Description:
The protein is an all-alpha fold.
Amino acid sequence: xxxxxxxxxxxxxxxxxxxxxxxxxxxxxxxxxxxxxxxxxxxxxxxxxxxxxxxxxxxxxxxxxxxxxxxxxxxxxxxxxxxxxxxxxxxxxxxxxxxxxxxxxxxxxxxxxxxxxxxxxxxxxxxxxxxxxxxxxxxxxxxxxxxxxxxxxxxxxxxxxxxxxxxxxxxxxxxxxxxxxxxxxxxxxxxxxxxxxxxxxxxxxxxxxxxxxxxxxxxxxxxxxxxxxxxxxxxxxxxxxxxxxxxxxxxxxxxxxxxxxxxxxxxxxxxxxxxxxxxxxxxxxxxxxxxxxxxxxxxxxxxxxxxxxxxxxxxxxxxxxxxxxxxxxxxxxxxxxxxxxxxxxxxxxxxxxxxxxxxxxxxxxxxxxxxxxxxxxxxxxxxxxxxxxxxxxxxxxxxxxxxxxxxxxxxxxxxxxxxxxxxxxxxxxxxxxxxxxxxxxxxxxxxxxxxxxxxxxxxxxxxxxxxxxxxxxxxxxxxxxxxxxxxxxxxxxxxxxxxxxxxx
Length: 504
């Protein structure tokens, strides 16, 4: 278990750095491209994600689970055959799809309301096969518990995209539209990560074996996951078209409608997705362990791992909710110079709880072979999201998307928790959640009134800094008092490591 914690800590560090850099790059893009350009960029990425999801999304997690099964049985050949089958499947789908999209380029471009979106999409589509195979190699690293390699390549991909993007947008004068340059940076990062992953795979003795017997298990398990994630990408793509259309039907201009979409998905969502780096690290490390416990029928160990994962996820989200509710307006103003984005960050902060539960619970359920059930839960949540996007923009503007996301994640998280309870026998995390709520609510209330008081006597930045400090202290006190976080143990470990470092 200690080794598991250490691995999770290392992966979390890599993931935090990656998401931190990506977040900074998103700020650069928002200031360089503007809300409208960011909307165009986001729409193109969203549509591209549909095809990327269709060609590979369900295969990596399924491959990691099948590799875990072969590892439990001691079958090295089975691991290699499964990897070969996954690569073969993704190439058989991605290569013909890429060719077809270029053959129908003119009619397909009419899908986009803005021709700039089509230009960006066809830049990205060059990398479809490369990044699809890279996703499979990541799945092989995952199943073999090579978490550092998995995380390091992801980090390098992010760094390459940022370096190339900043160079093209801010340093070199190319004469190419800024949104196109941003897409070129993404394409180059895809090619780079594919190359590094392939070299590492071969260097570590990765081999391709006859995939006979592995196609059917891979397809059977991966299709529901692929269907769920492809549906998710399709829903997001549909929303990127539907939401501006509904705003325009309410009297908005095309430019204003794209800007509203860009604010939510280009500014607000990157902030709300901050916990995903930590939750993703937990899922990355736990999924192979959960799969092995499941196949070995170790129910007690399985139940303990699930409970720890859920509690850690709730803690991460609970720590951030007060900051976003109280200081969300300041975050939007400082990062994006956008009061609207700050208002939405504050309003959407509570979504972090069901969103985080959905992320970890879906990963856990997929590792337990519940792909069909997670697909059904997703469809229920997506229906609520689409209904909100259709009916509410006229009344709530960009807030319609936030309400839709809240409904989506709430439905999905509740359904997932009910199924997890059935799979593991019982879930005691609801007690942890109640204690978390008892800590978070007072922190939010006190932080809100303290912020109001401090701005009367201090200038903007000192008042914000004091508010953040006060929220942090209040959280540590209440979380420790309610036994949500063992502050004394954390401090003891910190000083012990510091002492060992000095001794060494």
